[in-house]
Amino acid sequence: MRGKLIVFEGLDRAGKSTQCNRLVESLQQDGQKVRHIKFPDRNTPSGQMINSYLKGESQQNDHVIHLLFSMNRWEAAPSILKDIEEGTTIIIDRYYYSGCVYSAAKNNPTLNLKWAHGPEEGLPRPDICIFLDISAEDAAKRGGFGSEKYENLQMQARVRELFGYLMQSSPEKDDFVRIDAAGSLNHVQQRVKEVVVKAMGRVDAEHLPLRFI
Ligand code: NYM
Ligand code: MG
User: Fold this and answer.
1) Which of 194, 167, 201 is CA-nearest to residue 23?
2) Mean pLDDT computed over 20-27
3) Fewer CB within 10 A of the terminal residue: the chain, N end or C end?
């Protein structure tokens, strides 16, 4: 059986890293082969440019930084495909949904969701995307946002609105399961596991092929 592609999305401070780690551990305990990755991958050359932009150490125009984030995913795509083919499930902390939404949230008149989607087309499409939902205000209460670009209330509120649009009206809307992330870590973890086990089971039972964006 092929591996599955499972993505976590959400605002900064929604708890994605914690829930990714817990899911990886839990699936491994079930005897599954799992690889955990994260975008942006700050270690590759494109990732180093992204890192310096996010930290405010360099400037990029909105379109260029968008393409760098996309490039960062394309660099990883062959190894994702190979693992999935060989039966390893990939859990990703942020993917192209963040790519589209954060770029479009800047309200640049020539960079809307449609433009942002273009460079992502052809990447492997998730079997499921778990949106850990938290309000921008609650996110800010969790020890506050950091100092990186985009980590402010106004931007996060706009990001959440656009995620809402993706989940309701985009062609990808059925990829999403929204989980309320304001609850306890253990409760969220349980919900995540239920949702993931169901989605993975469905791929196997119906022999669903991996799709592409
Ligand atoms: N981000 C992340 C984007 O703007 N576009 C993308 O394609 C991706 C994957 O980078 N605020 C933004 C969202 C985050 C920031 O991610 C760094 P993280 O998960 O906080 O390290
Ligand atoms: Mg962050």
Assistant:
1) 194
2) 98
3) N
Question: How many angstroms separate the CA atoms of 75 and 143, rounded?
Answer: 33
Give bridge partners of residue 124 from the DSSP assignment.
Answer: 212
Cβ neighbourhood burial of 130 (10 Å; 0-12, 13-18, 19+): buried
Question: What pLDDT does 147 receive?
Answer: 86
Read off the pLDDT of each residue in 149-168 and give the average, rounded to a whole number.
Answer: 97
Q: Is the CB of 94 under 6 A from ligand 1?
A: yes
CA–centroid distance, residue 13 to ligand 2 (Å): 7
Tokens of 199: 């989605």
Neighbours of 112 (CB within 10 A): 14
Q: Best of 54, 64, 65, 160 to mutate for ligand 1, by most ligand atoms within 8 A of CB?
A: 54
Among residues 73, 174, 90, the alpha carbon closest in space to that of 131 is found at 174
The pLDDT tens digits for 80-108 are: 999 999 999 999 999 999 999 999 999 99
